[in-house]
Amino acid sequence: MGKYVDGFVIPVPKKNLVAYKKFARYASQLWIKCGALEYVESIGDDVPKGKITSFPKSVNLKGNETIIFAYVVYKSRTHRNQVMKKVMNDEKMTKMWDSMPFDGMRMIWGGFKTIIRNS
């Protein structure tokens, strides 16, 4: 098993979806080029707002936004740190951080150790 996963929940204004897809396309290619095993971006399709907690509540989703759920798979946390160092040194990615098509302050992300995997 031993895989490590970074997960992301991102509120993206619907009017920025074309720009977001352009960003995500570049990011996916960069992460894989830098050594990630898998990179997935998904757009919300069935993410109801819960009474106590939910994906929409977690990012304070506004009516003109949609949710992106993304994840990146690595061999281990050490491997993730190596990949991220390369990603963060990419000049084009560094410039893209300054003009993200979403509010990065409301993005949720974290690293996770895999405990069960069935594929």
In short:
This protein has helices at residues 17-33, 55-58, 77-88, 91-97, and strands at 4-13, 38-43, 65-74, 108-113.
The first-level CATH class is given as: Alpha Beta
- Judged by helices, strands and strand pairing, the structural class is alpha+beta
Q: Give the neighbour order of strands across the main sheet.
A: 2-3-1-4
Total strands: the figure is 4
Q: Note the overall shape.
A: globular
User: What do we call the CATH topology?
Assistant: Alpha-Beta Plaits
Q: What is the terminal separation in angstroms?
A: 11 Å
If you average the pLDDT, what whole number results? 94
H-E string: EHEHEHHE
Q: How many individual helices?
A: 4
CATH architecture descriptor name: 2-Layer Sandwich
Tell me about the largest β-sheet.
4 strands, antiparallel
Proportion in β-strands: 25-35%
| Helix proportion | 25-40%
Computed CA radius of gyration, to the nearest angstrom: 15 Å
Number of domains: 1
Low-confidence stretches: none
